[in-house]
Design a protein that fits this description.
Shape: rod-shaped
Low-confidence stretches: none
Mean pLDDT: 86
Distance between the termini: 78 Å
Oligomer: single chain
Order of helices and strands: H
Strand content: under 5%
Helix content: over 70%
């Protein structure tokens, strides 16, 4: 009698936890990539006024 509501609740909680874990790992990876790109562009920036070869 109480089995299906309990199974539904446990399933909901498990899926919610899965979404949270996936979101945090993806966000952490995105932030690492953004920091790496910012460091890379800061070190490889051209000096202002530099002419490009045509």
């Amino acid at each position: 009698m109480v089995l299906w509501p309990a199974v539904t609740l446990i399933g909901f909680l498990v899926l919610t936890a899965l979404v949270i874990v996936m979101g945090t790992t993806t966000t952490a990876r995105y932030e690492r990539e953004q920091r790496a790109a910012a460091r890379g562009s800061a070190t490889a920036a051209e000096p202002m006024g530099a002419a490009r070869a045509a």
